Amino acid sequence: MSLTRYLIVLLLTLGLSACASFGRGVAQAFLDKQEAEDTRVCQVWGRPFTGISPYLGDRYGKMKVLMVHGVGDHLPGYSTEFLEKLAKQLGLNALSKRHKNIALTSRQDAGKPLGNLRVSRLADTDRTLELLFYELTWSSITAEQKKMLAYDNSGEHAFRRAEINDLMKQFSNSTGPDPILYLGDSQEEILVSFAQAFCWMAKSDWGDLPNEVSQTCSFNDKSVPEHLQKDHFAFVAHSLGSRIVIDGMQRIAGLVKERNLDFQTALKAKEIPVYMLSNQLPMLQLGSKPPEVSNQHAAYCQPDGAKYSQRIVSKTPIVAFSDPNDLLSYAIPQGFAETYLDSRLCIDVANVNINIASVFDVFGLGKLANPLEAHVGYSSDDRVVALIARGIGHQNTARLVKERCEWIETID
Questions:
Q1: N or C: which end of the chain has fewer CB within 10 A?
Q2: By residue range, what is the domain housing residue 5?
Q3: Are both 250 and 327 inside the same structural domain?
Q4: pLDDT band for position 247 (50/70/90)?
């Protein structure tokens, strides 16, 4: 039984203590009826976007997707459910018989572990469509520092809490410290981990990737600009992962600005969409300075702009998914990207307001949705996966999205 159902049944049982069995029966029937209807909202505001499906059949380049997790402790393989749903939506029914794993480390300190990069190869039956999927697991970087709170999850303290509160406290202890650590000493290591993951994605095809090794990647390798020119790239990020992607791309561009002209030239021609699940950019901007370059979108992103040659990429379309009942998620408000995100990324925003967790009417006592489910359930939601796979606003849009999502096109 989900936490939402548990809470509702608990309330009903307390209110109908004199007729407990009757109350449970009514509650179960009521819940089943509401779940069967599935009236969860899905609204999309923005320009049309294609998703990743149009690029799978490119004869000259590969479609490559990098997933970056957010707060909490993760193990390699955390993206499996999302990947399987994505494969089904894209018609990719062939999977590499093994995953390739690279233990990431820093070029400056080869003995410093910076997480794991797991790569999977997917294709259709005829091998005419292909996807390379990269899963970054960086949480080991902050795990050691979070051990400071381990005592709070021990029997010495846990038994003193109510069961539901204890579950929520464990969730808080696992996830709460990560934004604090990211804004502190761990940020550089996490961004290096992201940079290494992106480097491997940009550098190699499946056959060239190493496996079960600890090895660094260099953007100065001549194969990087070659693959950047022909391949297609996208990021899928959850919660804090959204900030990591934006900060990571700015950091990469700054590091190689003067050392690798071929890399810079190739990157400036790319359009790299970012699908942000449980977007947290507004909250994570609190206490941080605006970027060095802001409020100059036209100058950097229009072909006739005075600083067009100094852009980082051609375009960064952001599709920000947020459940209004997710306590850690925020839509990107109008003007936020222009003021608080680097103008050189040429960002264009689409917002998706979507109920991940079902909303229940508790017999007139009010409406309730499980905030934990609302935060962690994006990657398993079929509508989210279909939007990432096939976009919205064109003929290739998935039937599920056409039937279940409302699209409001934004215009200048």
A1: C
A2: 1-37
A3: yes
A4: very high
372 band by pLDDT with thresholds 50, 70 and 90: confident
3-state secondary structure of 329: coil
Measured distance CA(131)–CA(289) in Å, rounded: 37
Contact 8, 164 (CB under 8 A): no
User: What does the alpha-carbon distance between residue 334 and residue 286 come to, in Å, rounded to a whole number?
Assistant: 17
Give the model confidence (pLDDT) of 87-101 as tens digits: 999 999 999 999 999
| CA–CA distance, 263 with 265 (Å, rounded to integer) | 5
Contacts of 227 (CB under 8 A, 6+ apart): 61, 202, 203, 204, 205
* Average confidence (pLDDT) over 203-223: 92
**Quick one: which of 48, 133, 134 has its CA closest to 92?**
133
pTM, rounded to two decimals:
0.87
Q: Would you state the structure tokens that stand for residue 362, as one six-digit string?
A: 């508790």
Q: Are residues 197 and 183 in the same domain?
A: yes
CA max distance for the chain: 77
